[in-house]
Design goal:
about 450 residues, alpha+beta, six-stranded antiparallel β-sheet, globular
């Protein structure tokens, strides 16, 4: 129980080795029990009934001095109130014109914002990487990604993609091809009759940030054909109450992410299918052939149920949305970066997005917005948390395909600005309502600030 040569008050064995010439590691000296006892504040960092002499701690002779110094120097401590919401580099508004993929040699055209975001690897947002693929007639382009999910939306042209793991998948304009992890390259070949352009999005930055590589497939290769998407959007547009929706579009998903909360519009039910609607090898995981019946799992019942996120993959969220002529969508925002592909916009112009960090005093319009004009085949980036509204002043429908990683967060997927016509005159709103109908993860159908019931907003969404 006496103080040993190392300076500790620990109960040392009789043959306790002598201390080194000074314990050169600061943390070791701080951990000597005699010094712990000198500070009432430090001494409280232990169970209340434990005597200071019994607090477990490393002794100087038990520590590799060089290694202790190295690992301790890696640590950092911050004062909570000044560090709980750290300042991060702002993600800029970016526009990638279609001209980038309409001419020039076969190549990958990356949207690399790594310098803006401050990371040592290519990325378009903290978790996603987006690129154009231009493939000239009859030529081939190879791509690879350390990713759990890769989405290929065909902007124009036709051809096929082949990998050693997933085989060959044919595609044409408007198709969406989704691949899980792919250790081998994916070789994209454009038909000899036409140039092709593809919008390619992966979650590689997320894996690079975590320092990991995918080890298993989290969904099966999937193809969603252009004809399927257009048919379902047309069906939705004729549903009762569709004119009151803030969105006229479809979310794209796979079997791996389906759930009981919302029945999918396809797979095509048995009574709709024909023998000509055949699956395309293993790549048709998102479809159901005639022999598979009413779109149910082949076997196993409920254990075949997906994750329930209703997203394209566990890390990618994808929307195909139509904006009617002479119409607009109310301002909204989400917590993740949005990468929007203008699938089609009138060549005469008049289709655009207004975006900014704040709403004006009415709470229904974006304040001092940046205007981003759509052009067919172009991509624009909306920073996280920014309010944005879409406008179509042309005589034609406009189409947009949005990609985000908002499915990584289980709340706050979407926040809508209130509609002026639905707000009572006596209720002054400078904030927004987030109704339960937007996502099943929200706990209440009342505004979280003023508790006003917002079920009246449901039809407008």
């Amino acid at each position: 129980g006496d103080t040993a040569e190392c300076g500790s008050t620990a109960r040392c064995p009789p043959n306790h080795p002598p201390a080194r010439s000074q314990s050169s590691v600061a943390i070791s000296r701080l951990r000597s029990r005699s010094q712990l006892g000198e500070s009432k504040e430090i001494s409280k960092l232990r169970p209340g009934n434990m005597p200071i002499t019994e607090v477990p701690c490393q002794l100087a002779h038990e520590i590799n001095e060089d290694y202790e110094t190295a690992v301790v120097e890696e640590g950092r401590i911050y004062e909570y109130t000044s560090a709980a919401n750290p300042a991060m580099k702002e993600i800029p508004v970016m526009f990638h014109p279609a001209e980038q993929h309409r001419s020039g040699p076969t190549r990958v055209i990356p949207f690399d914002l790594s310098k803006n975001i401050g990371v040592p690897y290519p990325c378009s947002s903290p978790n996603l990487m987006a690129s154009f693929l231009r493939i000239c007639k009859g030529e081939q382009l190879s791509t690879s990604a350390r990713a759990t999910s890769q989405a290929f939306y065909v902007i124009t042209g036709k051809g096929s993609s082949h990998s050693d793991v997933h085989g060959e998948i044919p595609w044409a304009m408007g198709d969406m091809v989704v691949l899980p992890r792919c250790p081998s390259e994916v070789r994209h070949t454009s038909d000899a009759s036409v140039d092709s352009a593809i919008y390619w999005v992966t979650d590689e930055p997320l894996l690079r940030y975590l320092g990991v590589s995918p080890t298993e497939d989290i969904f099966k290769p999937t193809v969603i054909r252009r004809e399927q998407m257009l048919r379902e959007v047309e069906k939705i547009s004729h549903e009762e109450g569709s004119e009151h929706r803030n969105r006229m579009g479809i979310l794209l998903g796979t079997k791996a992410t389906e759930g009981p909360s919302c029945e999918p519009y396809f797979p095509i039910r048995k009574h709709h299918s024909t023998k000509s609607e055949t699956t395309v090898g293993a790549a048709a995981a998102g479809e159901v052939s005639e022999s598979e019946g009413e779109g149910k799992p082949k076997s196993g019942g409920d254990e075949q149920q997906g994750s329930g996120t209703l997203t394209l993959t566990p890390t990618l969220w994808s929307l195909l949305n139509v904006l009617p002529a002479h119409d607009h969508q109310q301002p909204h925002r989400h917590n993740s970066v949005a990468l929007d592909l203008a699938v089609y916009a009138s060549p005469k112009g008049g289709v655009y997005t207004l975006m900014g960090p704040d709403l004006d005093e009415t709470g229904t319009r974006v304040k001092n917005p940046i205007r981003c004009d759509w052009s067919t085949g172009s991509v624009f980036l909306t920073p996280p948390g920014w309010w944005h509204s879409h406008h179509n002043e042309s005589d034609e429908k406009a189409w947009v395909s949005a990609a985000t990683n908002c499915c990584l967060s289980r709340d706050g997927l979407l926040e809508m600005a209130p509609l002026p016509s639905l707000l009572p005159p006596t209720h002054s709103h400078t904030h927004t309502h987030t109704p339960r109908s937007i996502t099943s993860y929200l706990p209440s159908d009342r505004c979280f600030r003023c508790k006003m019931r917002v079920s009246t907003h449901i039809n407008a969404l």
